[in-house]
Amino acid sequence: MSESTEEQQKALPGRLAQVIATRGGLAPPEAPFVIEHREALIYMLCEAAELEHGIMCQYLFAAFSIKQDAAEGLTDDQVATVRRWRERISHVAAQEMLHLALVQNLLSAIGAAPHLSRPNFPQPASHYPAGVNLTLLPFGEAALRHFMFLERPEGMALHDAPGLAAYGRAAPAMQPGDIAPHGQDFATVGHLYRSIEAGIEHLAQKYGERGLFVGPPRAQATQQYFQWPELVAVTDVTSARRAIGEILEQGEGPRGDWRNAHFGQFVEILDEFEQLREADRGFDPVRPVVPLNVRPSERDPNVPLVTDQLAQRVMDLFNVCYEVLLLMLQRFFAHAEETDAQLKVLADGTYALMVQAIKPLGDVITRLPAGPEYPGQTAGPSFELFYESDYVLPHREAAWVLLAERIEAAATFCQPSGTDSTPEVTQTLAEVRDALAGIASSLQAHLPSRPAPAPAAAVEEVPVMLDRARAFYRTCAGGSLDDVVSSAFADVARSAYLLLEHTTRSENSAAETVTVARITDSVLRPLADRLGRDRPADTSGVPEPRVPDGTVPELARRAAMDATQLRVQLADTAPPELLEAVAALQRVAVDLAPDAAGQAAELAETQRGLRPRIVVAENGPYLVTNAAAVRSYLGERLRVPPQLALCRCGESGDKPFCDGSHARTGFSGAKDPKRVPDQRDTYPGTQVTVFDNRGICQHSGFCTDRLPAVFRSDAEPFVAPSGGRMDEIVRAVRDCPSGALSLAFDGTEARDLAEWHGIREPAIEVSLDGPYRVTGAIPLADAAGKDVPPALGSSREHYALCRCGHSQNKPFCSGMHWYVQFRDPAGTADPTLFEWAGGLPALTRMTRMLYESLLPADDLLAPAFADLPPGAPQREAAWLAEAFGGPQRRGVTSLAGRDLTPALRARWASLALRAADQAGLPDDPAFRAALAGFLEWASRVPADSPGHVPSWDWSPGGRPDTSGEQAGASEPSVKLPGPDETVGFEAHIRPLFRERDRTSMRFAFDLWSRDDVQQHATEILRQLRNGTMPCDGAWPQSWTEVFRRWAESGFQP
């Protein structure tokens, strides 16, 4: 069909549309039935929920049954047409899911639990009133006429498809004195909703709006969680009318205008279907799908069952994924303790299940044979429910554990077992398995650590990864490679796949598993994403490549060098997918090389001409090119290749490096609309003006711990520039890792001073439990190669990048790692003093604090250290590090050669301990006993032994006990007051605010101070209701209600 012909057909209505349009209008609408009390309204809303739910399943079944390509006997023009039909029906099904969510909002608003259960198909003919029958039908005339009948506007005389008329059902009268609801007959779906709307208006007059809408506003699904602009939060009669209006307008259209509604879309598809069938009697756009169940029906033993084993297995998996989707929705609408971030995880999980599991499984099922009893026919998704959707506990942690376990079980079930699979099914199951693993991981990230089950043998995991790798490789090799760059990408994929095949033949199972995982998830996956994005791959004819001769290290070197040379050729235009693949191949080559340092040097020389740069992949890792140094939080230089992919989602099992987890978990790199505003504040002082942008602060505490009289977390204004020495303020500003601080003298900003005069090398520090701290002015670009805009007034020389995956200001850190208790790397069971202190960076902060701040201000010690040479604090920190078990760095103490009196030695040791406090070193008794002992010893170092470095260990008191850290991390339980109990601040309000909440808000007020909380109670209550406080998620509604009671009862102590 030509484009002009198709446009004419769209412009001119079909015959059926013309007939409907010329029937002379609509009959008067049915009179709404009476709803006298809340229970009757809940009953009818549950009926509406079941209808939307069942209708959605019908539409999905029909969409899955439509053929998709020319291999199924269609011409190219017909393929384009049927794909358009499938997209439109799928879109209508998505809108039915929106309607289901709106009904749940209505239920929640009036105080009812969500309702997501329904009868299994085929549904009893008498379950719904006359005029409503729900059944699974493959696409075709009967299905389309049935859909039109269900979506018909009120007052339109239209008959259902032959054989689908519902049985009549008597409707008991609704008496005003009834206490239990009765079923009600409704002629159309529109009639049901208009009766519900009338019932809401009647009950609002009866009880008052506040008396009717008693549900918590936070239980509403909104666009904040789901990507539907039409998703209305229901809190009163007006918003309830809007929600019902959205449902009716999308389904049957505004009264008299049905063409763009669901009804009109089905009319148009049926018209077009009949025209094509008349033009070509052989036109058959439908797979031979027969509706079958997997399990025998308890209600009807005559329901036909699928008998093909592979179809049974895939249908079971489909139904389990569908069940989990409902469980997650049930949890979302009935949540009691979830934060905003956790609700977003549930919402994102339901979307991922629909798109990454249910959709591909539904499509593959309709290609599978139904069994020998059904010759020539295929199976279809049955949407069977094995459990009620509300069986999970109301307690969040228990509910989430059950959800994660169910999803993990489904992921395990994706592995073919004892059935003759096909390449298409194997590939689909592998992709679904990855998606399910990612969803489970996103849930587990919000659960406390639990003992991990014993892992399966590594060698058993390799075949599963190989199946996934083959699917990725076929996508890379099967695309239409119509340009040189795409062809080069495919060559990289081929080299990587050959390396993978060769690796599996080695005898080193541990190295095999690591290499196969890296190549599969970090090389072939991103390349397949890139090559398969715009050109669907034909994988049917892709042969297995011949594995070349050579050792695994030789093949790894060859693949890495080829990929690196392509990366150099493309320079700054290299797409993120190639950068991710090159980074993984370089790591594989370096790890497998007999001379790892030599291999890394060869790669570095190959890409030496590339400028240092960090590219932020969209919803993916940080892609680092030629950083001069990458250091651990201990200050140790990591041996890494020149191209790196650093984890950004926080889920990698190979931190700080990316392992592809972001693709499995559905990580989003979007900023949170509720983040701290990007605003630069100015604090003028007598000698210096300080600038600060709270929106970019990473909350390291370097400024507030060093100069609490200047940077005040518990007072306003936050910065008091006249509260400290100017030189100390300058050092604090320069040491700010996020770049939020700057300063000016006499009205001129000293940007060059704040940015270290550009002398620092391009480097990245992987901080402990926190962000990547970038220094040396490494350019930061987005996935398109454009510069990432910095925050207002922030530094380009140094900045902090989120690596926990939860920042509200991605890609920059916003301090959320502290709230979500991000932990990496894990502590060792037997830490040295060096590790416990925080490594060289922490010890350097301490010695700089001592020699740059405390000693110059001390009248007794300042003269004794007046001749201190430049770099002395760094050299003493290195000396301390080696003494405490760190690397040898040729450090030297500044005390050497100084003949101090006993009083000055004691004074020095006392100031050193104070410097440890201000630098944030651990303050537990075990560490401080060892540190104090060392400082006492150091103060007595003989003047003639400047190079002597002792080997210092823990004191006789032993190491600190870390066994209770995890338990201590959990928040204490909160006891809420009873309904008749007086709410007091000390007994009930203060315990609601955690220490972390207090710390995060001390720049404004003290949440543990009754006077402060009383003074700011109105604003606090507003933010609690909006879910913007505390910043890691909203309180449960019950907590907010307690705060409101306290505020309205006179702020009792």
From TrEMBL:
SMART domains: ZnF_CDGSH (SM00704). Residues 633-668, 787-823 form the Iron-binding zinc finger CDGSH type domain. GO terms for cellular component: cytoplasm. Residues 531-551, 948-981 are annotated as: Disordered. The keyword Iron-sulfur applies. It comes from the Bacteria. This is Iron-binding zinc finger CDGSH type domain-containing protein. Keywords: 2Fe-2S, Iron, Iron-sulfur, Metal-binding. PANTHER family: MEMBRANE PROTEIN, PTHR34400. GO terms for molecular function: 2 iron, 2 sulfur cluster binding; heme binding; metal ion binding; oxygen binding. InterPro entries: Divergent_4Fe-4S_mono-cluster (IPR010693), Ferritin-like (IPR012347), FeS-contain_CDGSH-typ (IPR018967), Globin-like_sf (IPR009050), Globin/Proto (IPR012292), MitoNEET_CISD (IPR042216), VioB/RebD_dom (IPR026820).
